[in-house]
Amino acid sequence: MSDADQGPGNGADAGIPQSSYQVVPTADATGGQDLYAFRAEIPPPPPPPPLTPTQAVLQDNRKLLVGCAAGGVVLLVIALVAWLVLHQDEPPSYIDLGTSSFAAAGLEGKLIARWSGSARYELHIDPVSTQQLDGFSAVAANPPHPLTLDIHLKDASSVACQKEILLPFNAPSGDDPDHPGPLQLQKSLTGDTIQNVVTADGKINEIVVEGPLDCPVKAYKTLEAWDLSSNFPNPAEQDDWLRHEDSVAAGARHKAAELRARALIPKTHALPAPIEGDDVIVSDNPSHGTVETGAGRVFYLGKDVLREAEARWQVFPVSIHFRCDTKSICTLTRSGASNPLEARLVH
After folding, report:
1. pTM, whole model, 2 decimals?
2. Could you report the per-residue pLDDT of 179-212, keeping only the tens digit for each?
3. At what angle do helices 133-141 and 235-264 cross, to 10 degrees?
């Protein structure tokens, strides 16, 4: 800035010196190129020494490892992308559809749907009330007729798929109820597996059924609810069937007891003609229900008869008079005894 610029009109106070700056061109016309001229005087660095065989192998190995690592990362990324693409629409492997009741038969069911390449189901059937446990157990153990279970699996608005299950039906076998067979896994005609679950006292308190489900993946992924229907007897019919089974079981037990008792009775032999005579009972065998005489005859009276006979018959020796028909059916009489005893001559 020149002194002429410091006039009264420029706002500067008179008499106060002001600084000024001017650009003065340099007299050096080289442009500063000599600043880098020293580089030409610097000798180039010596070449690196050649690698030893060991160093060359290590360097090659490092290159190989780096290449493999890079390739592995690429493959991992490709595999991850492929897995995400393939599994982005995979259905859930487990759908708990909750419980559903069938009041007409007093049943309650819990249904689980599964996916493992195809749809399957797992159904648990129980009596609604513990008071119906005996009747439910009687029907499950020995159904009065073939039983069916119908399940309907629903989406938000309609039935997506359904299944009819036919439980195995076997007519009563007449086996001894005191020696029932084991509760074995059973198979239905449609490939379903049926298993009865029992309590500590042997009553069936649950039926578990598993099997395939005719349900495409699109419908399977929309399942939300289900319902149950069945021809299972109603609670009153279950009670009637329980009484029937108890009556049959009691009759079977009585028949089995008779058969076991008859098996213990010694075989008799036909006589060519009736016989009669006197003899002396010298001993008895209460476990077999027999007595033996001094002449070697053996009479079968039965264990109950020996236990209930008058005391005089149980004091040996006992003099008797016997009379037997051709079928070896005998009457034994002792003097002083109030009643004769019926017996069989077995030897």
Report:
1. 0.52
2. 444 467 888 877 899 999 999 888 999 999 999 9
3. 60
